[in-house]
Amino acid sequence: MIELGKVQTLKVLREKEFGVYLGETEEDTGILLPKKQVPEGTKPGDEISVFVYKDSMDRVIATTKQPKIQLGEMTVLTVKEKTRIGAFLDWGLEKDLLLPFKEQTNPLRQGDSCLVRLYVDKSSRLCATMRIYDYLQPNDRYQVGDQVEGTIYRINPDMGAFVAVDNRYFGMIPNRELFDNYRSGDVVSARITQIREDGKLNLAIRDKAYLQIRSDAERILSVLNDFGGVLPFGEKADPEVIKSRMKMSKNAFKRALGHLLKEGRIETGEDSIRLIR
Question: Whole-angstrom Cα distance, residue 148 to residue 85?
Fold first, then answer.
C-alpha cells in the first residue's frame, strides 16, 4: 500500500513525456514522478525510492527529494512565511509544509524555529502540529546526572520550559532553573536532576554547584569587564536583578563571588563589586 508522507520504494509502471508513473503492482493507477526528478536511464520495471505527498493542486505525487520529516516523526523546522491560514515551514520540498493556526502553541514569526510532528489532517493532507505532548515517551534510556540535548517546545511562565529530549522523551526545566530568555524551538543541553515515577525527566541547564562555580566566576569577570571593572550592585542585590544581569540565581552568584574573593580577583562593597586589575 502506497503511504502518504513516507519514503518508499516503488516500481516504474509506465513512461510519459512529463514523467513516469509509479506503483506497487502493474494493476495500480500509479502516481506521477515529474520528469525533472526521474533518474537518467530509468525504464519501466525499475524501482525508485521516493517520498509521497500532495502537490499545490492537492494531487498525490512522488519526489526523489528527501524531506526533513516523515509521517509520525518530530523535528525542528523553520518558518518561511506567515499567512491567514497559518505558517508555512521549510521541510526540504518545493511545496512548503502548512502549520495551521490551530496547531500552533505559541505565536510564530518568519525565521522562527519550532518543533513539530507531521500528521495527516481530516482532508487527507499532510500538515504539521506543535501539539506534541501526547506523542512524547517516558524515559527508558537515561539516568540521573546524564547530560542530554532537547528542544524546547513550550514555555509556561508559572512552571518552566517543556523540553522534548532527543525529540522523543518528555522533559521539563523548572522555573527555578531558567536563567535566560529561552524561546520555543531553542535547542538546549541539560542535566537530568530527577526521573519521576511516570518516566518524565526534570532537567537543569546548569551543572552541579561545585562544578558550576568556576563557570559562574568567569561570567562575573566578563560582565565586570563590560561594565568597565565595576558592577553597580553587590551581593545583596535583588534576585531578579542578578538573574537578569548575570543569568544565575542569587545563591550561585554569592558562591562565585566567594570564589573570586578567595582568589583576590575582586573586592566587594555595599552596593558595588570592583575588579582588581
Answer: 36
